[in-house]
Amino acid sequence: MSPSARPRRTPSPAPSRTAAGPTPRESPASARRIAALAVPALVVLAAEPLYVLVDTAVVGHLGAVPLAAVAVSGTVMSVAAWFGALMAYGTTGRAARRFGAGDRAAAVAEGVQASWLALGLSALLVLLAQVGAGPLVHALAGNEETADAAAHWLRIASFGIPGLLLAAAGNGWMRGVQDTRRPLCYVLGANVLSAILCPLLVYPAGWGLNGSAVANVAAQSVSGGLFLAALVRETRALRPEPRIIVQQVVLGRDLLIRGASFQVCFLSATAVASRFGVAAVGAHQIALQLWFFSALALDAVAIAAQSLVGATLGAGDAQAAQDVAKRVTIAGGLAGVVFAALAAAGAGVIPGWFTPDPAVHDQAAVVWPWFIALMPFAGIVYALDGVLIGAGDVRFLRDITLAATLLGFLPAIWIAYGLDLGLGGVWAGLALLIAIRFAGTVWRWRSSRWAVVGAELRAASP
Questions:
Q1: How far is C-alpha 251 from the geometric centre of its chain's CA atoms?
Q2: What pTM was computed for the model?
Q3: Where is this region: Disordered (predicted)?
Q4: DSSP 387-456
């Protein structure tokens, strides 16, 4: 990038403002530093799925068909969220390396180019949603009434995709420079607004299911606008730089394939659950949204790992990166145990928050033991995902996720369908997905091959 195109240099945010800056004698792997990044990230990550849980509860009281429609269309919208996570994670790793090497301006430049990429990608996704919503949800839904309602919801909700992806790009570069305060304010404020709008639009305003979609668009658009405004205040160098954008796309290739594997898994799970009836897919929607909520909350530790591992490797300190990895792995496992205990305590109560339908409650009881058992393992897997993404070891993550999908989940899910095993078979497939990834990421962490130092992300040895 030419000197005229580079962002102006600004001082790193003070520790008192971001709660993430190290003191002169503090280890990068200290519990305080990990918590200073993880706690605000927890609020940011939990805000969106918490809103989705509120949305699910509001829509669930409209009846089983609207709940099933949100299950189907929400799963399709998760494709956009997947692109957002891909963008945020890739940008965090690149920005953190630059920041660790002492070049904040270059770290911010990664955010500028990620935002251009977000705008281009979101235009394509909105167009595809308008054209393809009908055929796609009809392929996933179990009946015509559910499919029609889901398609209408999806066409409205898709207009929130630009804001969603801009927010993802903003979260990425801010995490890279260890700024935790602004993402917290932007995301939390937008989702609180939407959580207020959703019940008002669905019931008093009389918009029904459409009110849910409009509330989604409001939250995502406000959040994306705030992140974009922050970027404009940070730097005057806002021109697109194709070379950097291409580097981001190429580097994100393995994350893209990894993420595609997850989407295949969750889309397949919803499609198979739909074949077991409206009550089954409604219960699956409740359990899946709780899983996403728990997973993203657990991912707060992974966000801290991405930022700290990237920064320490960018500064040339492999030992500090390994210390961070050890601590976040322990923290992830403990967090998973806590979530499992909370889920067990609420087994007889939580499904009733979302729907009064006793048939859905019966199906939820089938899923619950799987949900509880998987949480501790998931906590460790998500923490190690953060370590390896921060280190740029995404090729390994791609390979282990593909293996878990092709050799574990997909065979199990279609066997469940063929043998009519119900939701228990669906979640047994998800358990196999987690088990294979757990074994692979723990082995990779112990090998230390991922700890490659330098300001540029480079591939680790196989």
A1: 18
A2: 0.74
A3: 1-27
A4: HHHHTT-HHHHHHHHHHHIIIIIHHHHHHHHHTT-HHHHHHHHHHHHHHHHHHHHHHHHHH-TT---SSS
DSSP structure string for 164-226: HHHHHHHHHHHHHTT--HHHHHHHHHHHHHHHHHHHHHHTTT--THHHHHHHHHHHHHHHHHH
Burial class (CB in 10 A: 0-12, 13-18, 19+), 310: buried
Backbone angles phi, psi at 277, to 5 degrees: 115, 165
Q: Do 363 and 64 contact (CB within 8 A), yes or no? A: no
d(CA 62, CA 405): 35
Q: List the chain domain ranges.
A: 31-447
- Decide: 111 and 183 in contact? Cβ < 8 Å: no
Alpha helices in 2-103 (DSSP H): 15-18, 31-60, 64-100
Number of helical H runs and strand E runs in the chain: 17, 0
User: What is the 8-class DSSP label of residue 142?
Assistant: S
Amino acid at 140: L
For 408-427, write each residue's pLDDT tens digit: 898 988 888 888 888 888 88
Distance CA 23, CA 69 (A): 50
Q: Which amino acid is at 225?
A: G
If one counts every other C-beta atom within 10 angstroms of the C-beta of residue 151, the result is 22
For the segment 173-199, what is each residue's pLDDT rounded down to a tens digit?
Answer: 999 999 988 999 999 889 888 889 999
